[in-house]
């Protein structure tokens, strides 16, 4: 059975973990074993995970005795080793492949840094009484520019009658981008200010692989954190 020798350790609400869950669904590898880790209890630092991943982080993935960590590495591994299972997420056609790879790395290197790391992580790790307002405004401006860049990308996509970040099909670029967008909404982004991004967010929310793997902790509560409300 597809995926029956696999096991995934993951945390609800983690965009890297969600990324891997989406790929497993798209590749029709749903028979994998899984263990949802309790982050509050720091279960990822326990022996079961550390013996497989010395960093004590998730996602941690096992496939028939092979251990692999880091979400991007896991996604790449699944596409390379199980390319013919389910949906191919990195097209073979050279021109389309180049765009998918570019958007993947832009989502990871630019979107994640500009919005999630620069603002959300700063606010989470810094006592609110010590927030530097001038520094935050600089970070917000940097993030707005990044969001507007994706808004421009999606304007062209939607004008062409497509729904996905690269053309007319769901690819690994969407796997990389969508969890970041949803994470930002969760942390206070008023996505209605970015209509093309909002259309993308709402459309892909209905995709079975995304709907099925939506973070359980997010389903339990609609609480929003206001870190991004100035974007």
> Can you tell me the CATH architecture of the largest domain?
Up-down Bundle
Task: Give the overall shape.
Answer: globular
CATH C-level of the largest domain: Mainly Alpha
Unreliable spans are none
Mean pLDDT over the full residue set:
93
The strand count comes to 4
Q: Cα-atom Rg, whole angstroms?
A: 18 Å
Q: Main β-sheet, in a few words?
A: 4 strands, mixed
Give me the strand/helix succession.
EHEHEEHHHHHHH
Based on secondary structure, the structural category is alpha+beta
Q: What is the oligomeric state here?
A: single chain
CATH topology of the largest domain: Glutathione S-transferase Yfyf (Class Pi), Chain A, domain 2
- Widest sheet: strand order? 2-1-3-4
User: Tally the helices: what do you get?
Assistant: 9
Task: Kindly state the percentage of residues in helix.
Answer: 40-55%
Organism: Mizuhopecten yessoensis (Japanese scallop)
Family: Belongs to the GST superfamily.
GO molecular function, one term: transferase activity
Pfam family, one: GST_N
Commentary on this structure:
- Belongs to the GST superfamily.
- One of its GO terms (molecular function) is transferase activity.
- Residues 4-86 form the GST N-terminal domain.
- The protein contains nine helices and four strands.
- It is 53% helix and 7% strand.
- It is globular, with a radius of gyration of 18 Å.
- The mean pLDDT is 93.
- A four-stranded mixed β-sheet has the order 2-1-3-4, covered by helices on one side.
- Helix 4 runs parallel beside helix 6.
- The protein has two domains: 6-82, Glutaredoxin (3-Layer(aba) Sandwich), CATH 3.40.30.10; 94-220, Glutathione S-transferase Yfyf (Class Pi), Chain A, domain 2, CATH 1.20.1050.10.
- The chain is of the alpha+beta class.
